[in-house]
Design a protein that fits this description.
The chain has about 280 residues and is mainly α. It has a two-stranded antiparallel sheet. Helix content is about 75%, strand content about 10%. Strand 1 and strand 2 form a beta hairpin. It is globular. The chain has one domain.
Amino acid sequence: MNHIARIVAMFLIAQLIGLFVGVQMVGNKEIYSTFNVTPNQQPEDVGNSVLFILYVLAVAVIVVVIIRYFRWASFLLRALELLTIFVTSSIVFGVSLAYFNIPNAFEMSIVLSMLLVVLKFLYPKIKNVTAIISSSGVGALFGFSFGIVPTLLFVILISLYDFISVFITKHMVYMAKEMSKMDLSFSVSSREKRYVREKGKRKEEEFSVELGSGDIAIPLMLAVSTYSSFTLVDSLAVVLGSTIGLVIVLYYVTRKRIFLPALPPLCFCGVLFLAVSRVLLH
């Protein structure tokens, strides 16, 4: 149960940080309009959902090739990690500082992001902290950039991809195992040592549970996009639903010690709770 509590706590922290950032971006679209990541700057264009799924597929192929065939894989992935931390944390810091009317918020966000990058480089074990901040930034950014219909389509497509990549091609399992060895900020983890009996002898082994940053960012994207179309109550319903979905997944994973695609149940529960919220409260 400790694993479940730790992962759920980190998930919720990321959801609340990201939702706060997303709400500020949606409420100040004229200020943050340049943050829209879609090529045509059209949040309601469902073509963007298909385009970004193709991006996801391309990145997955590139990462697998790098891990499997490049001697410098660790260096390249760490460089990508640090760049991701810098970009995403600058969004979180910048929007948050601006909300509190801190002078020179943009410049200070750059400084804080650079400091976070340096800390992650020097102390790899802070990966959970950097993963939470990065996931918050990504989820807020994409939720701000996509309308609710393109978001729902993207959620369906990426959940399908998650299922295929774990159960059929299995490349997601391969990537997760390799990246977990590097302490990269592409997942949050809960680790503890346990004693087990093997052939009558007491043996110590490390048991860990990992949740990918995408499994945090995608439900958050749905929550932020929901806010842009509906209300904060609906967004919180999405967060509650996805959290319940996460608890179900983690309970099964910790009992069976297997890999499962987290996005399908998380997103299904998030969408289900959104529908319930719309029917009952509006």
